[in-house]
Request: fold
Amino acid sequence: MASPTKGVYVGEISDRSSAKEAGLQKNDVIISINDIPTDNVAQLQEQVAKYRPGDKIKVTYVRDNKTNSVNVQLRNLQGTTQVTKAADIMDLGCAFKKVDESTLRQLGLSNGVQVTGLSKGRFHDAGVKEGFIITSINNSRISTPEDAEKMYKAIMKGNGDEKVMILRGVYPTGKRGIYAVDLSGTE
Reply:
């Protein structure tokens, strides 16, 4: 087989990852997951998203013009096969997405994550509106969706009855906002 024209090029492989454990290497090109073609990153993410940590998937890839397949056991972000408890971050009733550089520049911000997919939940109850850009939670700087999730988990693990997220940030219109999100009673 000649060099693939479609597929997902492997640029980096992190330690403790499923890919590394399965023997995938930098410069490999992943062409399918469970025999479903992955012509681009979106298709690869869509296929992997159908499975959970601990599941095994068949990854077909090209290395040195040879096609190979390997079974990969999926891991979570912590490098384990445990499925993280679904009841946690979902209680907030929203997701977080990275804010693009041009929006940050326009608003004069150096960091922040945007509230997206707002539905009924703790954020909605606190008055947070779709599109709010969170720059800090409880005075800790927030730059990535993972930062927001880590803060949430830290608050939930903390001792004491008062579990509150103080959100500071700004709307894309430039209007600033501060919200107190009550997390008590979510355990």
About this structure: The CA atoms of residues 146 and 184 lie 21 Å apart.
